[in-house]
From TrEMBL:
InterPro entries: 2C-system_Tx_regulators, CheY-like_superfamily, DpiA-like_HTH, Sig_transdc_resp-reg_cit/mal, Sig_transdc_resp-reg_receiver. The modification 4-aspartylphosphate is found at D54. It comes from the Bacteria. The lineage of its organism: Bacteria, Bacillati, Bacillota, Negativicutes, Selenomonadales. This is Transcriptional regulatory protein. It is found in: Cytoplasm. Gene3D superfamilies: 3.40.50.2300. The keyword Transcription regulation applies. Residues 3-119 form the Response regulatory domain. It comes from Sporomusa silvacetica DSM 10669. SMART domains: REC. The gene is dcuR_2. Keywords: Activator, Cytoplasm, DNA-binding, Phosphoprotein, Transcription, Transcription regulation, Two-component regulatory system. The keyword Transcription applies.
Length: 234
């Protein structure tokens, strides 16, 4: 689980961010800090992987906290969530190496995209000692190749598009190969190929559910509904 600290002085916004965070798999909220001093204490007390950081706060502002995190060379990532939309602030924040920058007010989908992309990158990097240029471009830098990419042998673009539209409609709910095959009206064997392909390009995750009797059930879940990777194939 990715351990998160929310730094936000507005109680209503902090609560909203907390509720949003609870809806996204792979994250656990460690604490909420109302100001920079509280945040510094919590960072000393807890292991934190990611900070959701506001800029405008009483006393020291979020930029000063960001500077302190970088000066101390802490292994902590930061996503800024702020009403600050001026280019001076945005440039300063981006130069500090933040993961993402969300301008208030924002929709849940935008935060979901930011956190999902961060989670996928973090999990990918945990399992790699080195990576090649293609992996760095696609998985970390977010640079997609232009134009359509060849599909795996035996897959059809039109069918993949139909599968993808139905998967997006699940809104993150888990589903089985059989359920998806019935929805698209193709065989389970064929559907399994499409689902495995989407898993390979990090659109889906798969979990194994063991019952008391019988075979285990394999369920898929869409983990990156806003990914642009799929556009290369459909």
């Amino acid at each position: 689980m990715i351990r998160v600290l929310i730094v936000e002085d507005d109680p209503m916004v902090a609560e909203l961010n907390r509720r949003y965070l609870e809806q996204i798999n792979g994250f656990i909220l460690i604490a909420i800090a109302r100001n920079v001093n509280e945040a510094l204490i919590l960072l000393e007390k807890h292991e934190i992987d990611l900070v959701l950081l506001d800029i405008f706060m009483p006393g020291m502002n979020g930029l000063e906290l960001l500077d302190k995190i970088r000066e101390q060379e802490r292994d902590i990532d930061v996503i800024v969530v702020s009403a600050a939309s001026d280019m001076h602030t945005i440039k300063k924040v981006l130069r500090s190496g933040v993961v993402d920058y969300l301008i208030k007010p924002f929709e849940f989908e935008r935060l979901n995209t930011a956190l999902s992309d961060y989670r996928n990158q973090a999990l990918f990097m945990r399992n790699r000692d080195v990576m090649n240029q293609a992996e760095l471009d696609r998985r970390i830098l977010g640079r997609e190749q232009q134009g359509q990419t060849e599909l795996n042998k035996g897959l059809c673009r039109n069918t993949l598009k139909a599968v993808w539209e139905i998967i997006r409609a699940t809104k993150g709910q888990a589903f089985t190969t059989e359920e998806m095959a019935n929805n698209v009206s193709i065989s389970r064997v064929s559907m399994r190929k499409y689902l495995e392909f989407l898993k390979q390009i990090d659109i889906l995750s798969m979990e194994v559910i063991y019952g008391t009797v019988g075979r285990p059930v394999y369920k898929y879940r869409c983990i990156n509904p806003e990914s642009n990777v799929i556009k290369r194939y459909i």
